[in-house]
Amino acid sequence: MSAHIANSDSEDGQTRRDFLLLTAGAFGAVGAGCFAWPFIDSLNPAADTLAMSTVEVDLTPIQEGQAITVKWRGKPVFVRHRTAAEIEQARAVKVEELRDRESDADRVKKDQWLIMVGVCTHLGCVPLGQKETDPKGDFGGWFCPCHGSHYDTSGRIRKGPAPKNLSVPEYSFISDTLVKVG
Amino acid sequence: MSSGQRAEFKNPVVSWIDERLPVFSMMQKEYGVFPTPRNFNYFWNFGAIAMVMLITMIVSGIVLAMHYTPHADHAFSSVERIMRDVNWGWMIRYIHMNGASFFFIAVYIHIFRGIYYGSYKKPRELLWILGVIIYLLMMATAFMGYTLPWSQMGGWAATVISGFFTAIPVVGDMIQTLLLGGFSVDNPTLNRFFSLHYLLPFLIFAVVFLHVWALHVSGSNNPLGIDVKGPQDTLPFHPYYTMKDTFGLGVFLLLYVIVTFFFPNIFAHPDHFVEYNPMVTPPHIVPEWYFLPFYAVLRGLTFGVNPYIGLSLFALIVVMAPVYCGADKKTGLCSIICVVGRKYAVLLLAIAAVAFALGYLSQVEKATGGALISLPLSNLVFVNAKLAGVLAMFGSVILLVFLPWLDTHPVRSARFRPLFKTATLLLAIDFVILGYVGMETADAALFGVIPLLWIGQLGTGYYFAYFLMLLPWLSRNEKAQPLPASINEAVLKA
């Protein structure tokens, strides 16, 4: 039977069979992919994890020179009330000398309030420098104890293995003393 | 698993089963009369020892899982409950905890044995690769197990290690979020780590089965590294090597038991006894000791690939081209590169050294900010330090897969290759030194003067040079000492 078909139009029959084989294979692959996707995507953050994605911070108790850490999306967010000297120190740096070039003005909405995610951009440790007694690194900002990254008073990477500045989350001032992060 | 020839069994039950499912014949063939080189030394014990450790880990792990709660709120206290309240819980946990370390000790000795005696060479390449896969699976399993007690050390190890993936350009953060099931290490992470930590040992078991199967096809290597020529070179596995393995296993287990009962926390750190707090990183986090050398490689790459480092690597590739390509047969561009590489080898090595020094120094930051020396284009970093560190770390493990094709010297055993022997012993020392560097803090110094970072960087350099430059070069240029005619002859002479 198959020999008969192959004899009658050998070349066309071969091509048609190849086409059917490849199409069936392609559909099988797409089907397997579609089947796999829900399992892979189920590993992404669930709805309840995503729901906890904003936090409001009251700034009134934070004195000049002090800093607090708030939890946002399971990560620490640093809120620092900077002194005039710290702001000046951050502004004095030449932007073109930085590894991740960002001016201090681009990183804050109000000069005295520096708000950023307190997660080292190297491998995700929480840098030290929030408390008075913490080591603050060579640039007076933060120091990551894991692999020795130094951040300045604007949270910019200055020394060590981290590639980027501490990231600034989306936030907005609801009033002069209330900030919404996220 | 060829079971063509069946053995004769006197016991009628055994015989009845064997006729229908020849498991007894198989055991007889593979572990009873199996012809094994007669000149094994005690290095050949560690495969069997590793197997026993795997079974110990699976058995103790299954029981621990019956008492453990994989939830962020309860994990830490459920482990404390195992330690204090569960009958024999303390012992089972200490067996599991220290068992991981002793499993790795056995496997590292086993791997070193493989390298030193050239066990990865033809016809055992696939056997070797299966072994590397087992090692990779062990690393994944051990890392996830480290996280389960939900201590400061474990939680932050998970943060740092999942952070490796953020080094991947563009999709890195998405991959990390997918792995963690959130934006930080939290309950979803713990749940999936527990699931995988339970699954992977059984995968390891399956790959061990393939590893042993492949071993029984090619037969064992031996300290002389020469092939078995006939029955006079071998002994039946039982009772000769069942006895030798049992003795070695006994000594090994004795050490394991001494640590488990008398120094159970010798491999632990204070931060293992503090519950995980995602807001505070402990001042000094380290992975388990068996990852420390690779951790030192990761931290050693404080510089990325800028044009100078790139030029240095390019010069090294040209120098190595004649070694890799086999210049004589090739035509076209490859042969030109080979000719250049051969003719100007010294000059190219000098260029590589100078370019590397420039590239390195132009990325060292001064305390006051800015680079130590500033050069044109030195800020043009193609691969940043973070990605370079992660690539080097993964690369240092993956390199092992390619070992059979990096070292193609026809003589297997280091006994007959003095240069290879020296280089390999240095590699072992280098590995230990890297481990020491990985254990210390990022800014530590030897005798308070020499930064450990430099030692880590030199060690990393030697590690890669050994595999990528020394081995290929020695393969082509080292003259081996004369080999004995047969295992039997060598044994009788000794």
Write the layout of secondary structure elements.
The complex is a heterodimer of chains A (182) and B (494).
Chain A: H1 2-8, H2 10-41, H3 47-51, E1 55-58, E2 67-72, E3 75-81, H4 84-92, H5 104-107, E4 113-117, E5 140-144, E6 149-152, E7 157-159, E8 171-175, E9 178-181
Chain B: H1 12-20, H2 23-32, E1 35-37, H3 46-65, H4 75-84, H5 89-116, H6 125-147, H7 152-163, H8 172-180, H9 187-218, E2 234-236, H10 237-262, H11 292-300, H12 307-325, H13 333-343, H14 345-361, H15 385-398, H16 403-406, H17 418-439, E3 445-446, E4 450-451, H18 452-477, H19 487-493
Antiparallel strand pairs in B: 1-2, 3-4
Detailed description of the structure:
The complex is a heterodimer of chains A (182) and B (494). Helices cover 31% and strands 24% of the residues of chain A. With 182 residues, chain A is α+β, with helices and mostly antiparallel strands. Chain A folds into two domains: 2-41; 50-181, Rieske Iron-sulfur Protein. With 494 residues, chain B is mostly helical. Chain B has three domains: 1-28, no CATH class; 29-288, Up-down Bundle (Cytochrome Bc1 Complex, Chain C), CATH 1.20.810; 298-477, no CATH class. Chain B has helices at 12-20, 23-32, 46-65, 75-84, 89-116, 125-147, 152-163, 172-180, 187-218, 237-262, 292-300, 307-325, 333-343, 345-361, 385-398, 403-406, 418-439, 452-477, 487-493; strands spanning 35-37, 234-236, 445-446, 450-451. The radius of gyration of chain B is 26 Å and the shape is globular. Chain B starts with 11 loop residues before the first helix and ends with a helix. The chains are: A alpha+beta (182), B mainly alpha (494). Chain A binds chain B through residues 40, 43-46, 49, 69, 71, 73-76, 93, 97, 119, 121-128, 138-139, 144-148, 158-163, and chain B through 156, 159-164, 166, 177-179, 181-186, 188, 192, 278-285, 299, 301-302, 365, 367, 369-370, 384-387, 389, 441-443.
